[in-house]
Amino acid sequence: MAFPKKKLQGLVAATITPMTENGEINFSVIGQYVDYLVKEQGVKNIFVNGTTGEGLSLSISERRQVAEEWVTKGKDKLDQVVIHVGALSLKESQELAQHAAEIGADGIAVIAPFFLKPWTKDILINFLKEVAAAAPALPFYYYHIPALTGVKIRAEELLDGIQDKIPTFRGLKFSDTDLLDFGQCVDQNRRQQFAFLFGVDEQLLSALVMGATGAVGSTYNYLGKKTNQMLEAFERKDLSLALNYQFCIQRFINFVVKLGFGVSQTKAIMTLVSGIPMGPPRLPLQKASREFTDSAEAKLKSLDFLSFADLKDGSLEASS
Ligand SMILES: CC(=O)N[C@H](C=O)[C@@H](O)[C@H](O)[C@H](O)CO
Ligand SMILES: CC(=O)C(=O)O
Question: How do residues 263-305 score in pLDDT, each as one tens digit?
């Protein structure tokens, strides 16, 4: 079924879940959001209901509806739609995995359960295996994000022999800065055709050198075009140009990180850059401040990431 599909590669935008001012999901802008990613950012793969999508703050029924909307609106426009189905409850995770298969998603990803945690590689593999088995026709990706899950089992260890346990395993989304671990994932699995997707956008160039085959991140929503230019320069082996792009991206991320940067701020920046209202985040997150949005806007302009022509009417109001 889904398996003849080509390997997931290039940029994958971790989608935001648009919300209305009263905290309901705003499904009405998802079609527009797909077009924006494809046409304005050159990004044709998405990762739905992950960190940026506040996936763990949504109800199971909301997660199903969001997944369905992205698959429907992305049809014939997007290359691949990967749904994050990780949850604390194995049952819920399996239900979401099965649902992803039913709606025709291109893959599923799972984080480690993060309240009652798996303490060994084998236990984590057993959990992942049970989820993957609920969608036996879908490519499976492990989403390694130790800073948020608190599960610090090294990815390199986890990948050792993983396909014997999880036959649908196709790759790793690596959201950590440990390039020894990441490099060894690549080095030790050269004979497999796994996707090695890096998830720390400000360090992507170093991961490309280590063998990353793609990247999943929040900033590809609005810096996709710039990052694609970096990927092209890297592809042509023009490392100094690629580094220029990476530094440019770093100047922006460094600036916002110092102001306090997370999902709320990503929502505000995306509203500003795309003109599509992303709305506030859901509790426990707090809406980004007006000061943050103003400073981010000034920085985007100074870096030439945002021209006045890009600013859609009303976008400032929507993010205030
Ligand atoms: C913790 C987190 O959300 N990480 C994202 C993806 O994994 C990244 O895309 C970051 O948002 C990005 O690298 C900026 O720090
Ligand atoms: C950044 C990312 O991959 C996520 O939001 O899950």
Answer: 999 999 999 999 999 999 999 999 999 999 999 999 999 998 8
Ligand 1 in reach of 285 Cβ (< 6 A): no
Question: Atom 9, ligand 1: which residue's CA is nearest?
Answer: 217
User: How far, in Å, from the CA of 149 to the mean position of ligand 2?
Assistant: 13
Q: Is 176 in the pocket of ligand 1 (CB under 6 A)?
A: no
Taking the model in full, what pTM does it have?
A: 0.94
Which DSSP letter does residue 112 get?
Answer: P
pLDDT at 3: 56
Nearest atom within ligand 2 for CA of residue 53: 5
Going by pLDDT thresholds of 50, 70 and 90, the confidence category of residue 316 is very low
Residue 51 Cα to ligand 1 midpoint, Å, equals: 8
CB 303 within 8 A of CB 251: yes
pLDDT at 306: 74
pLDDT of residue 308 exceeding 60, the answer is no
* Residues carrying an active site annotation: 143, 173
ipTM of this predicted complex? Answer: 0.95
Helix 263-274 to helix 290-302 angle (10° resolution) is 60
Residue nearest atom 11 in ligand 1 by C-alpha distance = 218
**What does the block give as tokens for 41?**
């950012």
Residues ≥6 apart with Cβ < 8 Å to 174:
144, 155, 181, 182, 185, 196, 197, 198, 199, 207, 212
